[in-house]
Write a structure and sequence with these properties.
Layout (H helix, E strand, L loop, with lengths): L12 H22 L6 H14 L3 E5 L2 H11 L7 E5 L5 H8 L3 E5 L10 H14 L3 E7 L8 H10 L3 E5 L7 E2 L2 E2 L6 E5 L13 E5 L2 H11 L21 H32 L13 E2 L5 E4 L3 H10 L22 E2 L5 H9 E4 L7 H17 L1
The structure holds pyridoxal-5'-phosphate.
The site of pyridoxal-5'-phosphate has 15 residues, from helix 3 and helix 4.
Length: about 375
C-alpha cells in the first residue's frame, strides 16, 4: 500500500541486533568455548552490572520475571491461603505467581492517568480486609508500561499496616522515580528479560533486587533448590530458577547500549505525544520527577476496536494491553476484589491501545502512524 507498510513493526529487535551483532557473536562464542552453560562467570558478572546500573545492594538473576515474583513471595513466606494485593489491570503473571503458591490475589483498581495502582483503592482494600478479618501478606506494585508507581505513598500505607511491598518492575527496568532507579524501591523488586521487555535477552530471563542482606541470601538459596552452604545441603524447599550463561552474555552486551536506547524510547514517546495529543486521543501522563522506560506507548481512545482494525488494514500493528482485567478472568474466580470494584480497570480495558514502540522507530514512521490514527478518527 505504501513505502512504510513492511517496515512498521511493533517491536524491532532486528535493528538492535544489527547494531551489536559482532559483540553478541563474540560473547556467545566465548560461552560455547568455556562450556559453563549453567552459572558460568557471565552470570555473576551480569548481576554485578545490574547492581551498578540500578544502585541496588543485591541483584539475583533467575529464569524469568514470573519466577522472580515467585521467589520474592517465597522469600517473605507467602504461603497457602495468604492474601496478596494485586492491581486488576496488569499482565497475568503478577497474580499467577500469587495463585501458584496457593495464596489469593486481592484485586484493586488502578489510576486512570498512570495505569498504576490507585491509592484510594489500596486504602479501601486494607479497610475491607480488616472487616473480613483477613491478613494481607503483601502488596505487589506494578510499574505498568514502564512508569514507576507512586512508591512513597504505597510504602507509607504498607508500613502503617505492617505489609511487605514487592515491586513488579518487569516493564520498568531502567526507569526512575524522584532520583531513584527502579530496583531500589519497595522491599523487593523483580524484573523480566523476556525479549520484548525494555532490556530483553534471547530467551527467558529475570532478576530480583533487594536492599536487605538476609532476604537476598534467602532469595538466592530459594532459586537454587533451597541450597545451604553447599550444593548438596538443602536448608529449605526451593525451586530451580537460574539465568542461563548464554542469556547473561547477551544481556551484558545489551546493557551497554541500554542507556542510549532508553533515551531513544523517550524521544519516540515525545514525538508521539506531540503529534497525537488531542481531545480525542489521551496520551500517557508521566508525573513530575518520574521517567518511564516506555515498555509500551499506550493511548486511550473511544471506538478502540474499530480504530485498531482500521490500523491493521493499513499495516500498522497495535496491541491491546490488556483486554480483560484480571478480576474478570475465569481462571481467577478464586480471588477477592475490592468492595468498590475495579471500574477504572474495566474502562481502560475497553479504551487502551498500545502503539509500536522501540528505540529504532524513525520520525518518519512515527508521523506515518500518527497521521493514520488521526485520519481514521476523522473518518469515523
Ligand atoms: C512480562 C511480565 C511479567 C513476567 O515476566 P516473564 O519473564 O515473561 O515471566 C510479570 N509481570 C509483568 C507486569 C510483565 O509485564
Amino acid at each position: 500500500m505504501n513505502e512504510y507498510s513492511v517496515t512498521t513493526k511493533f517491536i524491532d529487535l532486528e535493528m538492535q541486533q544489527k547494531r551489536i551483532r559482532p559483540y553478541l557473536d563474540k560473547a556467545i562464542t566465548k560461552v560455547l568455548n568455556h562450556g559453563q552453560y549453567i552459572m558460568g562467570p557471565e552470570v555473576s558478572m551480569f548481576e554485578d552490572q545490574l547492581k551498578q546500573f540500578s544502585g541496588a545492594s543485591h541483584a539475583i538473576a533467575c529464569a524469568n520475571g514470573t519466577d522472580a515474583l515467585t521467589l520474592a513471595l517465597m522469600s517473605i513466606d507467602v504461603k497457602h491461603e495468604d492474601v496478596v494485593i494485586v492491581p486488576s489491570f496488569t499482565y497475568v503473571a503478577t497474580a499467577e505467581a500469587v495463585a501458584q503458591l496457593g495464596a489469593k490475589p486481592f484485586f484493586i483498581d488502578v489510576c486512570e492517568t498512570t495505569y498504576n495502582l490507585d491509592i484510594a483503592s489500596l486504602k479501601r482494600a486494607i479497610k475491607d480486609s480488616k472487616k473480613m478479618g483477613i491478613n494481607i501478606a503483601a502488596i505487589i506494585v506494578v510499574d505498568l508500561f514502564g512508569l514507576p508507581a507512586d512508591i512513597d505513598s504505597i510504602m507509607n500505607i504498607a508500613k502503617e499496616n505492617n505489609i511487605k511491598v514487592i515491586v513488579d518492575a518487569a516493564q520498568s527496568f531502567g526507569a526512575e522515580s524522584k532520583g531513584r532507579k527502579v530496583g531500589t524501591m519497595g522491599e523487593i523488586t523483580t524484573t523480566s528479560f523476556f525479549p520484548a521487555k525494555p532490556l530483553g535477552c534471547y530467551g527467558d530471563g529475570g532478576a530480583v533486587f533487594t536492599e536487605d542482606d538476609e532476604l537476598a541470601q534467602k532469595i538466592r538459596s530459594l532459586s537454587l533448590h533451597g541450597k545451604g552452604s553447599h550444593k548438596y545441603e538443602n536448608v529449605r524447599v526451593g525451586v530451580n530458577s537460574r539465568l542461563d550463561t548464554i542469556q547473561a552474555a547477551v544481556l551484558i552486551e545489551k546493557l551497554k547500549i541500554f542507556p542510549s536506547e532508553l533515551l531513544s524510547r523517550q524521544k519516540v514517546a515525545e514525538l508521539y505525544n506531540e503529534k497525537l495529543n488531542s481531545s480525542q486521543i489521551k496520551t500517557p501522563q508521566i508525573p513530575d520527577n518520574h521517567s518511564s522506560s516506555w515498555a509500551q506507548y499506550t493511548i486511550k481512545i473511544d471506538d478502540r476496536d474499530f480504530i485498531q482494525k482500521e490500523l491493521a488494514k493499513r499495516n500498522i500493528p497495535s496491541i491491546v494491553y490488556y483486554p480483560i482485567p484480571l478480576s474478570k478472568q475465569s481462571g481467577y474466580t478464586n480471588s477477592i476484589t475490592v468492595s468498590k470494584g475495579v471500574e477504572i480497570s474495566e474502562k481502560l480495558s475497553e479504551k487502551v491501545l498500545s502503539l509500536p514502540m522501540h528505540p529504532y522507530l524513525s520520525e518518519k514512521i512515527i508521523f506515518h502512524i500518527c497521521d493514520n490514527i488521526k485520519d481514521i478518527i476523522s473518518r469515523r
